[in-house]
């Protein structure tokens, strides 16, 4: 699909396109760098190109692609113990419940198959605006975090969902089990940056990026030493929930990277789960929401250590959403 725009006044190419199409700055940069943009019929690749009045800018929106995959045998073996549940699917979006211990997309340090590999293996049409390694990926979850994610199947859907992320009209609520109860419901606003002593970690840094999280108490364990909490993010920093909890001396069970000290032999990952996702369908504009059931290990831990029958109602997604409205 191609669209033409006429320049009405002098402007930079990237800034001009930002005014014409609903796309993030990164997506516009990718369109230009991949030579999908022409000015007066000539392909351009410089994002800061100065445009003159009455020039014609043509933008080609590539169709979503079925991409080649890594060695199929390796991928199948790497994914054989990971159950990726499809919660919802139509022609434009796919909503899944990602298992823990699965990386979303490739990076230099990633050795195993990724969620993107699984998507390609299953011949799911994917958007292409985020680059080869991130086809379809609008937002992500850490490798150790389980839960609900939406994947864009078309470029038009990708642009629409990315816009919602920027405008914060799409978001998620998380569940976590901590090693100590919160004193009260709390909002934490502390900047987050890369830890200078450990590049695998993030930390509270004076010159870090603004980050805001809200935490709500749900239930205490039988011995009152653990607590089930809900979290809502207002920014999307790496490891944000884990860093903010650590900053008040609370740690997610199993999260030894951020200070949990316990019987690690009994917990093979940290108990953080993206539970509930809300969005507007990028094509139909329908308001939609999706819940990802708790993984077996977290559910079993709650059954063993909490009065589960007393918290089932509190885990109703409507109750979780409304609970944040009472103190935010």
TrEMBL record:
Name the EC number(s): 5.4.99.-
Where is each RNA-binding S4 domain found?
11-69
Catalytic residue positions: 142
Q: Which GO terms describe its biological process?
A: enzyme-directed rRNA pseudouridine synthesis
Superkingdom of the organism of origin: Bacteria
**Catalysed reaction, written as an equation:** a uridine in RNA = a pseudouridine in RNA
Q: Its family?
A: Belongs to the pseudouridine synthase RluA family.
Q: Top-level EC class, please?
A: isomerase
The record's gene field reads rluD
Pfam families on file? PseudoU_synth_2 (PF00849), S4 (PF01479)
Q: Outline what the protein does.
A: Responsible for synthesis of pseudouridine from uracil.
The entry's keywords: Isomerase, RNA-binding
Record-given protein name: Pseudouridine synthase
Molecular function, one GO term: RNA binding
